[in-house]
Amino acid sequence: MGRLHEGVISVEDLKDILPPKERLEKGPVAIIECIESIPCDPCSLVCKQGAIIKPSISTPPRVDYDKCIGCGACVPICPGLAIFMVDYTYSEDKGLVYLPYEFTPLPEKGEEVIALNREGKEVGMAEVVKVITYPDKTSVVCIAVDKDLVMEVRFFRRKENGEKG
Amino acid sequence: MDSRIWQHPIIDFGERKGREIYFNFNGKPIKAYEGETIAAALYASGVRVFGRSIRFQRPRGWFCAIGKCSSCLMKVDGIPNVRTCITLVKDGMNVEYQDPRPNLPEKTEFECEHVKVETDIAVIGGGPAGLSAILSLNELGVDSLIIDENPWLGGQLIKQTHKFFGSKASYAGIRGIKIAEILLGELRKENVKSLENSSVIACYREGKGFKITAVKGHSTLYEIDAKGLLVATGAMENMLAFPNNDLPGVCGAGGVQTLMNVYGVKPGENALMVGAGNVGLIVAYQLAQAGVNVKMIVEAAPKIGGYLVHAAKVRRMGIPILTRHSIKAAIGKDHVEGAVITKLDENWNPIEGTEFEVEVDLICLAVGLTPSTEILMQIGCEHAYVPELGGHVAIHDKFLKTTLDNVYLAGDVSGIEEASTAMMEGKIAAATAAIDMGVNVEKAENLRKKSLHELELLRSSPFSKRVITGKEKVYSLMEEISCG
Prior knowledge:
The structure holds two protein chains of two kinds. Chain A is mainly β. Chain A has one domain (4-158). Chain A contains three helices and nine strands, in the order ααβαββββββββ. In chain A, β4 (83-87) and β5 form a beta hairpin. Chain A is globular and about 50 Å long. The termini of chain A are far apart. In chain A, 42% of the residues are buried. By secondary structure, chain B is α/β, with parallel strands linked by helices. Chain B folds into three domains: 13-96, Roll (Ubiquitin-like (UB roll)); 113-236 and 370-482, FAD/NAD(P)-binding domain (3-Layer(bba) Sandwich), CATH 3.50.50.60; 250-369, FAD/NAD(P)-binding domain. In chain B, the strands form seven sheets. In chain B, strands 8, 9, 10, 11, 12, 13 and 26 form a seven-stranded mixed β-sheet that branches. At the A-B interface, β9 of A face α6 and α7 of B.
C-alpha cells in the first residue's frame, strides 16, 4: 500500500477499483477514492442509477461502472470530498477532471490554473471548463488537463498575481 | 488592525454580524460587532495577551474559547474573573486586564434576581448530545429543562463547517453548523425550556432528587430542583508538554475553530498543526478555508490517526503531514513567532540533530480531549480512568445510566467520540430517563432500541475499536457495581 501513512492515496492503491480502460473511453464516470471503512452512506443514497454499492454502512463504496452514467451527482455529496469524475472523451488530447471545491473566490470559466496531484505537487496547467455551484456551498470545478494527467490531477490552485504558467 | 473574515467559502459572516459597537479595553475604545464575545472582538483588533499567570506573570492568550481553560479571565465592568471567551460584548462595556489574583469587589453594584425552577429532568450542556436528549425528552412528554453556559446553544456543532459522515438518522452529508440550526429550530418550535448563557456552579443530591445552582452573568441566580439529571457537558482540549506551551498563539485546535468559524476572525497568518487525528486534519483544512497558510501538520505517531480522506484533502492542497515528528518548543516573547520541530524515534523520543524551525504565529494543538466530568464527580457518581475514552469517566451502562439513581450521561462526557454518536447517546439517555420515570414507556423503549441500533452502525467501523474497548470496560465495571 503506497504512501497511505502519509495521507496520499496512489493509483496503485486504487488499481483494483478503477474503471477499466474501455469504460473510461465511453464517457464521464465517477472515481471514488474512499478505501477505508467509514460509517457513511450519502453517496449510495444520492445515486439514482444504483451504481454506488455499499453492502453495509461501513463498507467502502464500489462503483458499478456499467450502471454509472457520469451524471456527477455524487461529486459534491461526499462529506470526505473523495469523489471525482473523469471524462476522457473531452477532446483529442485533453480529459476532464471534476473535483469538489470549497474555497473562495471561485475560479472563472476559461481561467488557466495550476494543476496539482494528490501530493499537492504542480504537475501542469489546466483550464477551467465549468464551475457548478450548489446551495450547500460545495462547488464542483471541472478542469481540462492532458489525458495522461487525468488520473493524477486531483486539485488545482489559482495563479497568483503576475504568475506565469 | 482588523482580522475579521469577510470572504469565506462556507459562511456569510457579513450577514451574521450584528450592529457595530464600541467598548473600552484598558481605557481605549475598541470596535466590535454585537454577537461577538469580548475575547473574539479583542483578538480581531490584534490583542493576543489576555492575562498573566499568577506566579511568574507569564502572558496568557486564547486557548479553548468555550469557558473551560481560564486563560482569558479579565475584569469586566468592575467584576474580576469574567470568562471573556463566553461573555458577549456590549456597547460601552469596560474591559481591563486584571491582577492575576484579584480581590472581589467590595461593593456589588448589581442586583441579582433569585429564580426558583422545578423540573423532572435537568439536562446540563447544550451540545449535540444535550440537544438531542432534550428534544427526545420533550417528545416523550417528560418535563425537562436544558442549561448551557455558552452564548449560543449547539455546543461544538456551531463551528463544524464540514459535512458529517454517518447515516441519514445522524444527519450524514450535512454540515455541523446546519445540524445545529435544525436542532435549535426544533427546540424553538417545541418551546423547550432552556436556561442559556447560564453556568451550573454547583450540583447536590437532595432527598431523592437534585438541587442545581446556576448563574446567568451576574444578573440571575437560578435554584433548580430536579428529579433527575442528564449530564452532557462535553470535553476539554488537551495540552501538550513542551517549553513555552503557554505562550499566546498556542491554542487548542477547537478553540481556533471557534474563533474563525463562529466569530469570523482570522486566527493567524501562518499555522502549525500538532496532531493528525480527525480534529487536526479537519481544522487544518478549515484554517486554509479561512485564508491561513498551514505550513505543516506534525504527528508523533508513525501514521496518521484520522481518516485518509481528510488527510488526502489537505495533502492535495500541498500541506505536508510529517509523521513521527512533534513540536519541541514554541518560540516567541509575548506571542508565538515560531516552533521547533523534531523527529521522533521508535520509542517516541526526540532524535538529536533533527530539529528545525518553522516560522509561524499560530500553533494549534489537536492532541485529544478529556471528558468534562466535574459535575458527575461532585454529585458522587463512581468514576474510572479509561484511557480509551479520554480519561476519567463516570461508570455507566449501555443505556447511559450512572452508578447513581436518576443520573444519566451522554456525549463526550461519557467518553471522547464524535457528534454523530453523541446525538444517538442523547436519545438513548433521554429514553432511559423516561423509562425509569414510567413516562411513555413503550414509545421510549422503541426510541431506545432504534437509537441503540443506529449507534451500533455508527460504531461499526474499525476506527471505533478503541472506543468500544473503553465502553466495554466501563459497562463491565457497572455490572460489577450493580451486582454488589
